[in-house]
Amino acid sequence: TEKLHIVGGGMAGSEAAWQAAQMGVDVVIHEMRPKVETFAHRTGSLAEMVCSNSFRSDDDEQNAVGLLHWEMRAANGLIMSSADAHRLPAGGALAVDRDPFAETVTNRLKSHPRVSVTEEEVIDLPEHGHWIFSTGPLTSPALGEAIAKATGADSLAFFDAIAPIAYAESIDMNVAWRQSRYDKGDTEEERTAYINCPMTRAEYEAFIDALLAADKTEFHEGETAGYFDGCLPIEVMAERGRETLRHGPMKPVGLTNPHKPDEKPYAVVQLRRDNALGTLYNIVGFQTKMKYGAQTEVFRMIPGLGEARFARLGGIHRNTFLNSPTLLDEQMRLRSRRHIRFAGQITGVEGYVESAAMGLLAGRLAAAEILERPLPPVPQDSAMGALIHHITGGADAKTFQPMNVNFGLFRPVDGLKGGRRGRKDRYKAYTDRAKQAWAAWLDSCAETGVEPA
Ligand code: FAD
């Protein structure tokens, strides 16, 4: 059979290689480190954790990332078994002893009879063969250029500017209202795709003060701030003048508050629907370098968001990622060149765990294709399925930004109470349903006769 080539031996590439090799496919990993370095990696090991040493919550009943751990363990994932082997005490989180973890991943792959590793930077998209590109947020510039050329310049971003995303159900609609600016849009759906939060002058002034005072993070050395001219952090806009935001993303024009029709708001914060399910809304224009704790505090000052919960907070980082909803098919193949798959953070997921998860799927899907034993579609009710569905179709392509796994990506479970009191039951229902769906999918993989050993 043909070989599978994997470019980039990070979280995603390592897991993809393991899955494919265990299914009986020969794999070549092309990894540029240590020959070519990035500003964040320190070693030549595969699966190096570049920043925090946490895989986040390990709670597989109440937390979406914990559920992803569960699903990867059930699929005999290399990243999870290596993390478990080097687990550090950290309460409910899965903290990892990073160097022995990376060494374990490296050794298990290098000693696998079906895996070989070559140290080289790949700088082109090849014309033939079976390929997975999992070169991550710090994809080398030469390859980044080649990908941009092949996919169209607008389809590859080199920076993310993430506005915070709130769960729709946590927004107080007795204060906020749905309306697009100047009622623009041909359909009712478009005219109600925005949620508006009104501010009085006093609320606006207090908000600006809080923005200016909030703790912020600095850019990493080498990350260069020059990239984000078109998407300044809101706190930088506030520094440029107290009125800047009111004339920018918070302008109060073209909107009428039905709760107080006679009162003109001094400023308005808009949230835009972020996924097809309508469970997630991003705060328009609110990319920020504020620290996470500060963000929650400051954003809850916005009327209507007093009890908001966030599926993800804002950020601005060096990050190479594709506009996956337009470029990738449901199997993570480049629509224009189906012999090439993408996996990991470059597909627009965010985080070690999510990246490894997308590697797991890409490795299995690619190996199944080489072995000519197609797998059934990944179930949307699993955490894996919710993520892959989001990046390859569920997300809005126009505003696509990298996403963490979260329950807002899951189809609602019918017949459960909403609100805070129902949440625990609801999350349990999501995770129960997901585990069942994932286990059934793994069983049907096994029936194709190519279940990883
Ligand atoms: P990586 O793990 O980055 O793997 C990509 C691999 O491809 C690398 O080994 C790289 O050397 C190689 N490569 C790149 N270009 C080429 C090429 N042309 N040819 C051959 N090889 C190539 N996530 C978290 O969960 N927690 C955090 O605290 C966190 N902090 C982060 C801090 C920084 C500065 C950055 C940049 C990212 C951070 N992330 C964090 C995100 C994290 O990097 C990713 O989620 C995860 O490592 C991505 O996995 P990946 O496999 O997609 O990419």
Report on this model:
By secondary structure, the chain is of the alpha+beta class. 34% of the residues lie in helices and 17% in strands. The protein contains 14 helices and 17 strands. It has helices at 11-22, 64-74, 78-85, 98-110, 141-151, 188-191, 201-213, 234-240, 244-247, 292-299, 324-327, 352-370, 383-394, 419-447; strands at 4-7, 27-31, 54-57, 87-88, 93-96, 115-119, 130-133, 156-162, 165-167, 177-178, 194-199, 267-273, 280-283, 310-312, 315-322, 333-334, 337-342. Strands 6-2-1-7-17-16 form a six-stranded mixed beta sheet, covered by helices on one side. It has a six-stranded antiparallel beta sheet with strand order 10-11-12-13-9-14. A hairpin with a 4-residue loop joins strand 4 (87-88) and strand 5. Helix 1 packs parallel to helix 12 (352-370), helix 2 (64-74) packs parallel to helix 14 (419-447) and helix 3 (78-85) packs across helix 4 (98-110). The longest helix is centred in the C-terminal third of the chain and has 29 residues, at 419-447. It is globular. The two termini are 18 Å apart. It binds flavin-adenine dinucleotide. Residues 7-13, 30-33, 38, 40-41, 50-52, 121-122, 134-140, 143, 220, 344-346, 351-352, 355 line the site of flavin-adenine dinucleotide (FAD).
